[in-house]
């Protein structure tokens, strides 16, 4: 790294050194190479374009989807003396900003994607010196991603108009499929991807079925005296829970997008300043909040995705001290999620279903939670982390290898083209018009699963998908993946938590 870069890091930003992959990303950007940086929240993505923006001539254009976040970033950039501005519908100094941009007097200009792709703005870009395109929350460009925004698709033609201006895409949350899609959509070469480590070793993960949410959350609050966030799915739910947690004697507040902005601001400020407050919030809370000493995060229901879970739990323990993450889930969460998937555009349903299955595998595993999370983000973790509920207290598990083999055989015998539901029917011997027409009732796998094994079918199917022993094709049909062989040959085993009796039927229902 050239001394001038380290100099700028120290003098402008006041940091003694780069953290993690920051140095690699900055080096690529300064060399003019197109780059995708996948870095978890808090890893310091902003620096990777802010530092080049002060070192390079011209303006770095930052595309960012959330105006509220842009203003936070603007304040932070200006605080260290970077010449920055935002150009959004919420700004009344747009003429002044445009003049500064034209004059080359801005290091950073933040815009929303819809503005970036407008004709007027495109013309403006041709008249101003550009140093870099930084595309924040780049997973928004992928239909496969969990937060697709059609406006992001309009960026490519804009970028391609300036082929010599380097581009840096940034995201905190992207599975392998989404990452490949981002590279493709934004014209970044495959060797231009830099992925930071995702592990947060000081966070202890706990996941349990829901019994009485209020009581379970009150117990978490009692066990954890430090500040914490409880994520609740509905706005009304945050206020109800805040109300009932008053009895814990802790300061409690609620936060959701429906609250008066002044109250929202006040509650957020109180939380940041407090050492023991419990914030009952929707997922609207947390982005852009700098509070390193959050000691616990609890989910009172299923998060939207593994990405969401990782991001929300990641708000705990930023200071590196021990922190805990609790999740309480119910089969009805899965039913609701499935219903929501049914309502999204058909092109996006498969991705959503795969994501829901991954979440199912995370909550149902008898194995290490961290291992599942990290594998989801493309890492190759140890089988045991020693700092999650299942590693610390291994649950009663049942060997599901036989059921897994039966499942794989049924997928194979029916021609690797049917979905989970149909394969289950075949294994359970549930006769339908379809199974008769297909002649599947004569197969050796017809009706070979019964009794206790039946409750394991759905969790096993999910586990097989997660291990890449099965893959879903574009129509949801299951086919063998590279992980199938080891199971069929007896070289690998599969163990699952024994569903508690009372929960058994409902859990068996929790599928995607
Ligand atoms: P992200 O966008 O990846 O979530 P931010 O860019 O907001 O992360 O940075 C998270 C925090 O880390 C900020 O408080 C930032 O000032 C700090 N930070 C970034 N880079 C460094 C560094 N090299 N050394 C120390 N602190 C850093
Ligand atoms: Zn573990």
TrEMBL record:
Pfam families: DEAD (PF00270), Helicase_C (PF00271), HRDC (PF00570), RecQ_Zn_bind (PF16124), RQC (PF09382). Its cofactor is Zn(2+); Mg(2+). Residues 213-362 form the Helicase C-terminal domain. The keyword DNA-binding applies. Keywords: ATP-binding, DNA damage, DNA recombination, DNA repair, DNA-binding, Helicase, Hydrolase, Isomerase, Metal-binding, Nucleotide-binding, Zinc. GO terms for molecular function: DNA helicase activity; hydrolase activity. InterPro entries: DEAD/DEAH_box_helicase_dom (IPR011545), DNA_helicase_ATP-dep_RecQ (IPR004589), DNA_helicase_ATP-dep_RecQ_bac (IPR006293), Helicase_ATP-bd (IPR014001), Helicase_C-like (IPR001650), HRDC-like_sf (IPR010997), HRDC_dom (IPR002121), HRDC_dom_sf (IPR044876). Its EC number is 5.6.2.4. Residues 26-192 form the Helicase ATP-binding domain. It comes from the Bacteria. SUPFAM superfamilies: HRDC-like (SSF47819), P-loop containing nucleoside triphosphate hydrolases (SSF52540), Winged helix' DNA-binding domain (SSF46785). Belongs to the helicase family. RecQ subfamily. This is DNA helicase RecQ. It comes from Sphingomonas qomolangmaensis.
């Amino acid at each position: 790294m050239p001394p001038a870069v380290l100099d700028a890091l120290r003098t402008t930003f006041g940091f003694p050194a780069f953290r993690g992959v920051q140095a690699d990303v900055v080096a690529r950007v300064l060399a003019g190479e197109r780059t995708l940086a996948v870095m978890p929240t808090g890893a310091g993505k902003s620096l990777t374009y802010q530092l080049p923006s002060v070192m390079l001539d011209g303006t770095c254009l930052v595309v960012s989807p959330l105006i509220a976040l842009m203003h936070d970033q603007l304040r932070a950039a200006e605080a260290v003396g970077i010449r920055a501005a935002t150009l959004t519908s919420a700004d009344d100094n747009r003429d002044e900003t445009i003049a500064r941009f034209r004059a080359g007097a801005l290091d950073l200009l933040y815009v929303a994607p819809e503005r970036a792709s407008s004709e007027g703005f495109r013309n403006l870009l041709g008249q101003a010196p550009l140093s870099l395109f930084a595309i924040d929350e780049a997973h928004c460009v992928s239909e496969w991603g969990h937060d697709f925004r059609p406006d992001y698709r309009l960026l490519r033609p804009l970028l391609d108009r300036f082929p010599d201006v380097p581009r840096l895409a940034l995201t905190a949350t992207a599975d392998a499929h989404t990452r490949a899609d981002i590279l493709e959509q934004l014209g970044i070469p495959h060797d231009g991807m830099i992925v930071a480590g995702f592990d947060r070793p000081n966070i202890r993960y706990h996941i349990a079925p829901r019994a009485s949410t209020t009581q379970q959350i009150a117990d978490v609050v009692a066990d954890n005296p430090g500040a914490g966030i409880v994520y609740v799915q509905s706005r009304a739910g945050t206020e109800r829970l805040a109300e009932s947690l008053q009895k814990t004697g802790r300061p409690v507040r609620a936060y959701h997008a429906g609250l008066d902005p002044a109250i929202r601001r006040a509650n957020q400020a109180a939380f940041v300043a407090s050492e023991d407050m419990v914030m009952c919030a929707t997922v609207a809370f947390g982005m852009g909040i700098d509070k390193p000493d959050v000691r616990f995060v609890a989910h009172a229901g299923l998060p939207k995705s593994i990405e969401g879970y990782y991001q929300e739990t990641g708000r705990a323990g930023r200071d590196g001290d021990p922190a805990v993450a609790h999740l309480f889930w119910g089969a009805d969460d899965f039913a609701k999620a499935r219903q929501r998937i049914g309502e999204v555009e058909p092109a996006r349903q498969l991705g959503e279903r795969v994501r829901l299955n991954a979440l199912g595998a995370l909550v149902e595993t008898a194995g290490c939670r961290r291992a599942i999370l990290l594998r989801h983000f493309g890492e190759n973790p140890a089988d045991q982390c020693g700092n999650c509920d299942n590693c610390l207290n291994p649950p009663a598990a049942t060997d599901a290898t036989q059921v897994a083999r039966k499942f794989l055989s049924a997928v194979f015998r029916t021609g690797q083209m049917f979905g989970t539901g149909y394969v289950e029917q075949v294994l359970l011997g549930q006769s339908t018009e379809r199974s008769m027409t297909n002649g599947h009732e004569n197969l050796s796998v017809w009706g070979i699963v019964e009794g206790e094994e039946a409750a394991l079918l759905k969790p096993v199917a999910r586990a097989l998908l997660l291990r890449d022993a099965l893959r879903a094709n574009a129509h949801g049909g299951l086919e063998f993946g590279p992980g199938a062989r080891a199971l069929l040959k007896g070289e690998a085993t599969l163990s699952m938590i024994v569903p508690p009796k009372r929960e058994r039927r409902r859990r068996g229902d929790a599928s995607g």
